[in-house]
Amino acid sequence: MRIQLLKYFFTSLVAFGIGVMILNSATLSRVNYRHCIDDSSIKFNESGVIDTNSQWRKLGLATYIFTAYLDDREPCSPLITVMGFGEKSESPLYGTLLLLSGAKIYLGKYGDRKKLNPTGHYTLGKLGPYAYLWLLPVEVIDARYSRSIIVQQYHPTTGKTEAEIPITRPVYSTKTFGVCIDSPLFGPVKAQTIIQNIEINKVLGAEWFTIYVYTSDQASLQVLHKYAGEGLVDVVQNWGRGLPGDNTHYFGQTLSINECAYRNMYRVKYLVYTDLDEFIVPRKSIGWADMMKKIENFKYDTYLFRHSYFFENYNNTTLDSLHVSASQTEFTCNASYRVELPKFLTSVIRLRKVHPPKEKSKYILRPLYKSTIGVHEIFEHVGDHIKTYVVPPDYGLLHHYRLFSGGPNPVAASTVDDVKRNQRIPDEHAFVYKEKIVEALRRRLCR
Questions:
Q1: DSSP at 424
Q2: Are 398 and 274 in contact (CB under 8 A)?
Q3: Of 6, 123, 245, 338, which residue has the fewest beta carbons closer than 10 angstroms?
């Protein structure tokens, strides 16, 4: 345990040494260094989380803030980072730090407002994701004494509004791979879909999951709560309560993917970003750990995986022509109960086309070195010398399982045209994991 603790503390010092440029240069020039954060306060937590404390707080007419984090990647100049949505022309935010003793320290206007989706064009009424940054003042000798931040906004129409947000300090664990399900749950997501995703990713190497709930039925929530009780999941349960989803991109996705990195900055070494119907599958390795040993390099903090479609309902008419044998579609729990296998093991035909980098791509990243995260690419690293590595498809590929026709979210017309031109091939790489996946699903479902 002590070795793991020292490893994380050393990583923080490395991040400080390479010059993490999080605030703008004008703000950094005014930094007064204080007693640096040491490792005496680091505590490991391997428990699952049902987060009902984080909630949306509205300021003014259209500013919504959700969480606040202590960012100590520069241990001698820690930051308070507030995550939220706002309009491009919103009034500035002002902060007051509330200490555990009850004392208050006025922080003034934020030192920086970082746009988390720099390619987005926000029209009137549309909200963009932002991180609002304040430098922890020199009066605070130890960041552990900070309890919360009171955020204020002055607006001509609403006057002064304010909200208090607890400050979340870094959480450490011994886990290596975590998964951020990068689309908040919404609509009729089946509980079995969640179970299949978690169990498949566990076989690939996942030890931790962060899932944002915009809407969900009771059965899916019960599944998530059970996994949280087993120390596997952080359920962000209030994501959809108070968020104006119609005014944000895809139920707040552009903020949730960045919030997930802050939430897991020290909890895991790697974060895997995929959706419920996507999996990053090694091609020359068994599992993520073995794959990362082959491709990891100190020059890179993000590993981008190119995308290919696997069609759920295209196999029936093409198996013979592509010389693919019909695969098992279910397994038996007992004489009267059979369970359908996940599409990961039954959809074995994919589009020949592998999309270019940043087009539908997903990635594995090191959250400690992230600054601005996009859905299909990383917009900003913490240092100019740190880059993204595009993983060759023969080392790892993003499998995306979709209905070829029908369903609420049909594939694009251009994809249908590609398939009609016979641009499809068999791909059975998932079968390497079949035995372990079936065993895991049997333990979970055959009760």
A1: E
A2: yes
A3: 123
Provide the residue range defining the domain that includes 110: 57-168
DSSP character for 300? Answer: E
* Structure tokens belonging to residue 215: 């809407």
Q: Are 322 and 414 in contact (CB under 8 A)?
A: no
Q: Is 203 exposed, middle or buried (0-12, 13-18, 19+ CB in 10 A)?
A: buried
Q: What are 313-346's pLDDT values in tens digits?
A: 665 444 444 445 546 788 888 877 888 999 999 9
Report the phi/psi class of residue 292: left, alpha or beta, with left for phi > 0 and alpha for psi in -120 to 50.
Answer: alpha
Is there a single domain that holds both residue 197 and residue 110? no
Choose one of 168, 202, 233: the last residue of a domain.
168
Residues of the chain predicted below pLDDT 50: 1-34, 316-323, 326
At 51-86, the pLDDT tens digits run 999 999 999 999 999 999 999 888 888 999 999 999
Query: Phi and psi at residue 443, in whole multiples of 5°?
Result: -65, -35
Q: Which residues contact 140 (CB under 8 A, 6 or more apart)?
A: 34, 97, 99, 105, 146
- What's the one-letter identity of residue 122? Y
